[in-house]
Structure formats: C-alpha cells, structure tokens
Amino acid sequence: MRVVETMLFIKGPSEMRCLLLFATLILLSAIDEGAQKIDLTNENTIATINHSSILIDHLQGLLSKSNSSDITLKVFTGNSEEVKVFHAHHLLLVLQSDVFEDLLLNQSVTTLVLHETPECAVLFEKLLRYLYCGEVSILLNHVVPLHKLATKYRVAALQQGIIEYMSQHLASAFPQGHVVSWYHYSVRIGNEDLQERCKRFLAWNMSSIILSHEWQTISNDLMVALLQRSDLVVENELEIYYAVEEWIKKNRPDVTVMKTVLKSIRYAMIDPQHLFRIQKQSAIMNMHYSSVHDLLFLAFQFHSTTPLVFAKYFDVNCSFFIPRNYLSTSWGSQWVINNPARDDRSTSFHTQLTPSNSDTSKRVTWNALFSPRWLPISFRAFSTSSSYRAVQAYSPEGGRPRVIINPTTNSVSFAGVNFQKTILVKVKQEGRSYVKHVYNFHQSTEETGDFLLQADLQKRSSEYLIDNSLHLHIIIKPIYQSLIKAIK
C-alpha cells in the first residue's frame, strides 16, 4: 500500500505577531548572515527586506533547545502510565492557541499536564511544530487525529487547512479506505461542506466503492442519503440492489432503516426478468417483501406499457422513474479522445428509448461533437459589435472545450420524453481512475458554463489526460415531460 505524505504550510495573523515580537532576532540574523544588501542612495528607492525564512528556522530550532524553554508539557496517553515530555515556550503557546493562553494565565506555571488519546498523543509533536513554524507534514491517516488536536487547542488556521486538505485529497484517500470515515468525522464536527464533498465522491465512484471494504463501513444515515441521489455512477440499478443486500447482511440495521433502504431502490429501472429473479432468490427480499411489494407491482406496471400510456394514470415525475448515471451500453457510451487539443472529433452511439420493457426494441442514435476550442456566445456577441481588433485579441489556444449531442432519429418517436445528457470526466491518480466531474445539460455543454474550464488540454501534463487522452463517458437519461396529467 502506498503511503501518501503531504506538507501543510498555513500562515495566519499569529505568525505576524511572532514576526513583530522577534524583530530583534531577525535583524541580528540578517546582519550576521548578510542575507540581503540594498543600495539606498536614491531616496526614491523602495525595497522589501524579507527574512521571515530565517525567523522560521530559528523558531524551529527552539524546539530542540530545551535549555531555553520556560514551560514543560507532559502529555499522558489515554489511561496508561506512558508520558511524552516536551520543552516549549510560554510566549509561542499563548500566541498561537487560545486554550494554552487560558491554561497559562498564571505566569508562574512551569509544568502543564495534558491528557490525549493514543492516536492524538502520537501527533502532539506535529502540533507543536506547527505552532512554532506554521508548517507540518502529515500522512493521510494523520488528518483526523491532528484535526482533533487543532480543534481541542483552537488552532483555527490548522483546522481549516486540514479540512481543505481532506476535501482535495479524496481520490488519494479512497485506496486506503478513508473517504467513508472522513464523512462520518465531518458529521461529528458539523462540517456540511466536507460532508457533501465526501458524498459526491462516493456517488460518482459508486461502482468502485461497492467493491471496496469501505462499503461495509457505511453508516445507516449515509446509506440512506446515497440511495436518494440520482447522480450515483453504477453499471445499472441491479448492481445497487445486490450491493445493498450485502450491506444489510453485514450490518444488520434495524427494521426501520432496512425498509427505508429497500424502498430507495428504483425497481422500475430493473428489467422484469431480474425483478422476478430477485423475488424468487433473494433472502432479504423474501423477509421484507411486504415493505416493497407495492413498489415492485408499480415497476411491473411501468414495464407493461410505454411511459406515455403509463403517465396517463401515474405520476412519472418522481425519483422512482428517474434513471441514475448508468454505465451500461443501453444508456450511453465511453469516449476516449486521443490528443484532445488537436481538432474537432465526433462519435455516434445508440441508447434505449426508455427503461420500460415495452421499449426495449426502440433505439435512439446519437451524434456527439467534441471541439477543443470554441468561441463562447457571450464573446461572439461582444466581438460583432466591436472592432476587428477584439477578434484578433482572442487567442484560440484560450478557447473552451465543448461537446454537442444531438439525436439523428426522428424526434416524432420521442413523444412524451425529454433527454438529459450527462458527461462523466474521468482522471487517473495513483494508478486508479475516478470520476472528477459530472456535467448535465440538454444539448451542449455550453449550458453548464464551466465544462473543462480548468483542464489545460494543451498541456500533456494536464491531470485531465490519461496517456495523452481525454476519457469521457456520455450518458443519456430519458426524462418524462410533466405536461401529461395523471387521471384522478
């Protein structure tokens, strides 16, 4: 297993206070080392003398000089007799932490006894190093206990830095099994932004999560939250059902949770043959059939006719009839574009008209056009009313990528059905591919406004390229028009 280590370097107001308090130290160091010479003969000369790195080096050196310390920290580990001793400086602790300021109100205190959990005690030295120099190197499995320490001692900049690190390194954390635990931790600390980022990563990479050991560690609340989403990326709905079945067997949730989870499966998206097989062979379904039999019956009714006829009697504009992001060839196609910055490309593929079993023989042919550089409508409107110079100033290399998807099939056969197009953008990190972005639109990615805006497809080193190729997956979702009213 590969170990990932990252350096966090966070600056805050407290660092500035340290700079002021140790100004004498900086000046003496600058004179001794001759760090910078500036000619000030011209009275109009403006220069900046920056020796902050020297200060950081000196502050870091204080950690190893116990003879200059004025406070001793004794950190006890859990309930054991084990103790870690650190020699620190009253002034630094008070400047960086409100908690230490409260603990050290009595200036005569020379020893401070602290109690930490084993996982936090191991990282206490890293917390001290951050307090002294604003920098700390961490491993993926350090982030939660280090954040606990930063929270306990109210070191706000370090708290925020770790949260940002977690948000940006979910792909690195997944192979080591941290994403689900990070989500659960974000719930405990009430960080809604990190919660959503974790849920989104899990949803967009659901097929991989299902196969990992993290799947069994998902809490009841998280499982319910995930199953309510329409942006789950899976092969098909059947994959979700069998994965949920295994989760139920492993975790044995209470009856209420089990019913909620089973009702969150979109049975109408599973073909009748597999629905019969689930009813016949699934032990979980047999035990809780009474909870979902009405949904199964509704699914069979949906498959018995076209959505257009079905919509005359039932409301089809609810999540039960909305496809998720299915990777099956029935609903889209993978598209690998070699050298995507070179020129326009096109491809064609077929999808099923609707999930209804009555439409299995009906296919829609789609044409997709990829353009690596195009002129946004807003710019075109501007350039037509301006001078020719404005058009010349526009650099094609700075243009935006765009994808347009249109059907070649006669639209008359689409009566009652709209189509949402979804594009998954896959990238590769540490030997694993994962979905980085999901874009939804009706015809062109121009509708999203930010399609591959930061991709830098001109650069071979772009994180969006795998072996110099752009990996997309196009998904077509049939969405039923709300114009048809169900008969009351």
What order do the helices and strands come in, and which of them pair?
Layout: E1 5-9, H1 13-21, H2 23-33, H3 52-62, E2 71-77, E3 83-88, H4 90-96, H5 98-103, E4 111-116, H6 118-121, H7 124-133, E5 135-139, H8 143-152, H9 156-168, H10 170-173, H11 179-189, H12 192-204, H13 206-211, H14 220-227, E6 233-234, H15 237-251, H16 255-263, H17 272-281, H18 283-287, H19 289-303, H20 307-310, E7 325-326, E8 332-338, E9 345-352, E10 363-374, H21 377-384, H22 388-393, E11 400-407, E12 417-429, E13 432-441, E14 465-466, E15 469-480
Parallel strand pairs: 2-4, 6-7
Antiparallel strand pairs: 1-5, 2-3, 8-15, 9-10, 10-11, 12-13, 12-15, 14-15
Helix pairs in contact: 8-9, 11-12
Short description:
The chain has 488 residues and is α+β, with helices and mostly antiparallel strands.
What does this structure look like?
- With 488 residues, the protein is α+β, with helices and mostly antiparallel strands.
- The chain is built from 22 helices and 15 strands.
- It has three domains: 5-32 and 52-168, Potassium Channel Kv1.1, Chain A, CATH 3.30.710; 205-304, Alpha Horseshoe (Serine Threonine Protein Phosphatase 5, Tetratricopeptide repeat); 325-383 and 396-480, Apoptosis, Tumor Necrosis Factor Receptor Associated Protein 2, Chain A, CATH 2.60.210.
- Strands 8, 12, 13, 14 and 15 form a five-stranded antiparallel beta sheet that branches.
- The longest helix has 15 residues, at 237-251.
Features:
3 domains; Serine Threonine Protein Phosphatase 5, Tetratricopeptide repeat; 5-stranded antiparallel sheet; disordered C terminus; 15 strands; 488 residues; alpha+beta; single chain; Apoptosis, Tumor Necrosis Factor Receptor Associated Protein 2, Chain A; 22 helices
